[in-house]
C-alpha cells in the first residue's frame, strides 16, 4: 500500500508543478552583460524576477543568488529563510568554492536538553518553542558569499527583497494553507498568531 501511495503522491506533485508552471506569469527577460547567458531556477516568480533584475543591473550569479535568497525569505518562507542556514557551491574563474553556513546549536545546548528528569523524551521540545531555536547562518552566509564573490553593492542585491517586503506581493494559496495549518497546530502553544 505504501508503494501505491508513494506513486500517487509523486503523480500529484508532478501535476501540481506542471499546473504551477502554467499559472505563474513568466519573469521579465534579462538583458545585457551576464544576463544574456543566464539561467535561473526559483520556486516562485518573485525569485526569478529578482535574479533577472540583478543580472540586468550588471550583477553576477552570486549577486543573483544572494538577492533570490533574501527575496524568498519574504515571498516564499518555506524555501528562503533568515532563521536557518544553507550551503553554497560556486565556480569562480574555474575554481570551485564551497561555503557551509548552516544553522547550528546554541552554545548552551546539551545532549539532554530534550529529555525530562526520568530520561524520557519531552514531546515537541525539539520542534516547538525556544528550545527549538538554532543560531541562524543564512544572513552571515549570504554576506560572506557576497563579500567574497559578488560584483554589486550589498544593498543592490537586497533591493528587490526590501521592495517586496515594503510594497507587498500576491500570496499564493499554498502559503495561506500552510499558515493556517501552523496557526491551528500552534494555537495556544506559541505567539505565532501575534506575528503571522
Instruction: Round the Cα radius of gyration to an integer and report it.
Output: 20 Å
Helix content: 40-55%
Strand elements, count: 2
Provide a count of the helices: 7
Strand percent estimate = 5-15%
**Biggest sheet layout:** 2 strands, antiparallel
Describe the protein's architecture and organization:
There is one protein chain. The chain is mainly alpha-helical and 196 residues long. The chain has one domain (2-102, 137-187). It is built from 7 helices and 2 strands. It has helices at 2-23, 45-56, 61-75, 138-149, 154-167, 173-186, 192-195; strands at residues 87-92, 95-100. Strands 1-2 form a two-stranded antiparallel sheet. β1 (87-92) and β2 (95-100) form a beta hairpin. α2 (45-56) packs antiparallel against α3 (61-75). The model is unreliable at 12-27 (pLDDT under 50).
Outline the fold blueprint.
Blueprint: H1 2-23, H2 45-56, H3 61-75, E1 87-92, E2 95-100, H4 138-149, H5 154-167, H6 173-186, H7 192-195
Amino acid at each position: 500500500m505504501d508503494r501505491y501511495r508513494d506513486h500517487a503522491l509523486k503523480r500529484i506533485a508532478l501535476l501540481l508543478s506542471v499546473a504551477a508552471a502554467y499559472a505563474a506569469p513568466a519573469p521579465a527577460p534579462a538583458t545585457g552583460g551576464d544576463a544574456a547567458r543566464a539561467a535561473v531556477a526559483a520556486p516562485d516568480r518573485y525569485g526569478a524576477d529578482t535574479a533577472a533584475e540583478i543580472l540586468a543591473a550588471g550583477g553576477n550569479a552570486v549577486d543573483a543568488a544572494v538577492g533570490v535568497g533574501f527575496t524568498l525569505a519574504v515571498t516564499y518562507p518555506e524555501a528562503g529563510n533568515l532563521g536557518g542556514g544553507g550551503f553554497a557551491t560556486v565556480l569562480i574563474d574555474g575554481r570551485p568554492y564551497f561555503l557551509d553556513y548552516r544553522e547550528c546549536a546554541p552554545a548552551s545546548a546539551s545532549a539532554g536538553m530534550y529529555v525530562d528528569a526520568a530520561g524520557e523524551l519531552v514531546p515537541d521540545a525539539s520542534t516547538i518553542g525556544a528550545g527549538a531555536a538554532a543560531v541562524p547562518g543564512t544572513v552571515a552566509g549570504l554576506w560572506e558569499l557576497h563579500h567574497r564573490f559578488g560584483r554589486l553593492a550589498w544593498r543592490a542585491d537586497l533591493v528587490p527583497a526590501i521592495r517586496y517586503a515594503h510594497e507587498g506581493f500576491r500570496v499564493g494559496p499554498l502559503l495561506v494553507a500552510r499558515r493556517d495549518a501552523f496557526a491551528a497546530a500552534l494555537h495556544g502553544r506559541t505567539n505565532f498568531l501575534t506575528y503571522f
